[in-house]
Queue: 2 jobs
Job 1
Amino acid sequence: EKLKYEISAPYKDNLIRARGISDVEQFLLPSPSHLQEPHYLGTKSEMETAKNWIEEHQGCAALTVVDSDCDGFCASTILLNYLKDVYPNWEIDFFTHSKKQHGLEDVVHELDLDEYELVFLPDAGSNDDEYFAQYPNTKFIILDHHLRSIEGPCPDNAVIINNQIATEYKNKSLSGAGVTWQFCRYLDYELDVEYADQYTDLAAVAIIGDVMDITTLENRYIIDQGIHNFKNTFLKLLRDNAAYSLGGSVTPIGIAFYIVPMINSMCRMGNLGEKTQYHNIQVVYTKEGETGDAYIEALVAKIGGNYAVRVATSDSLVQ
């Protein structure tokens, strides 16, 4: 039976070349140079506006809307944990969709957004102009990767950070969590802190889970760094639970088949209470050296054809 590709030795290198990769060494060993500077995700005005709104409204009533898939859960987890690092006393609410809604389409029927000064929309919101206009006293920060179908600028109370519409950002295959992670890297620069790299693992899993193009060298670098250096306690739990299936090594294929489905099954099929608990669990993470005897005990159970994770945590976990 004839193979799709006629591959000769050296087989690995030639198979990679057959898939359209010209520089095999760069593909196998991506470097930090393949990361584009995050300030290119928007105009100078857009990036500064988003940063200034966060600084001006830190500590105020704020909301994060969690998109219902692996990318959305990881994006909101990156954002909430990062902002908690920078502003430890800022308690930010989050809203989890009951079904596969996106952005504000159901939020406006469930919550009074006038009660919030700032709303974050990671992995969604690029086409929600009609809802922004309904709440002129609320500011909206969108960290998205979906195409914007609306022509012209968005309302003045919203700023869209989106690699698809950023003319100078080359990687159009970055996921919503990737955009959120890069935005946090931008905040690192501007606020003179170093927190964003703690969340590369979440960006990596999200890029894989959203089936983005991983031949893109920026995505390759994020994945290479993230999946070999898990820091999020919940991701470690999923990895360890799938250790037998992963065969002793963590690869993009292993993540796609044995970790992402654990997250997506709950996002897509779980009820609202389960999703809310699930997101709370994912946001929990530990910092070595600071948590003492902090622990996570988990029982992974198959429930109604879907996988759910039930977790008991100690009081010393950092949220």
Job 2
Amino acid sequence: MKAVRIHEFGGPEVLKIEEVPEPTIRPGDVLIQTEAAGVNYADVMTRIGMYPIRGLPITPGLEVAGRIVKAGDAVTDFKAGDRVVAMLNAGGYAERVAAPAAAVFSVPDSLSAVQAAALPVNYLTALHMLREFGRLAPGESVLIQAAASGVGTAAIQLARLLGARIFATASAEDKLALARELGAHETINYTTHDFAEIVKAGTGGRGVDLILECVGGDVFDKSLQCLAPLGRLITYGVAGGVPGTILTPLLLFGNLSVIGFHLGRYYQTRPNREGMQEILRLVAAGRIRPIISATFPLREVAKAHDHLSERKTRGKVLLVP
């Protein structure tokens, strides 16, 4: 079977399509014929050597959707032919993938494989940041940076359901239009306007209660200035490649919190199925929807990474083997 392999860190050219053996499954695993695989910024960070991994070579990819080819002897909830979506530690950029049954979920008939594969990483990240880590309450305000990204489009929809007032930033008018369509109340083009000034003005100088930030550098630093007293900032990425600076007096006198979130590490310490099951219920009920930016065949994986890293995304990027 074909899979994408990384043997050295670098640009998109290090993503190599290779023939590899089919994965073997353990008694508690299922083997999935991949119909769609999510592409995440974590994959880009892995490729360039800025993400913690056990070593090279590696096949990136944290989520896939498709049909089960084979189920291990200890698996009772799934059988060959079932349509599923799976969360992975790695390995999704491949024609077939082995996954623990505990990390596999049934896909409703109303959802395509592409739509299903767009859900796990982005929507679970948004859900846990907003609710468990951010403690967002009805009537509170939230600033969502990179609002047209996969996580950003998920976070806007979920924050709307949680009853928040939503400020959203993006770099182009069509991205801002998408944010408004999904439920953002105030949108800001950060390339032409000072988002901190607009947030402060829009909240009467108070600031927002919660910020979701994934860029780092100056964006992180300016975001801290947008927090209301007792506000929380959640950092879940460093897409700009430069970490932010935390000024402890600012935290001290504002009673502010800076919280880190990493979905994979969170699920290693608190494995559960409830979050994904809730996301699937919300999609089935039509209350949220996956936003697809672009799909690429496996052979064009380098183009998929370029699409993501060049900030062309309006939602999720996926590979279709």
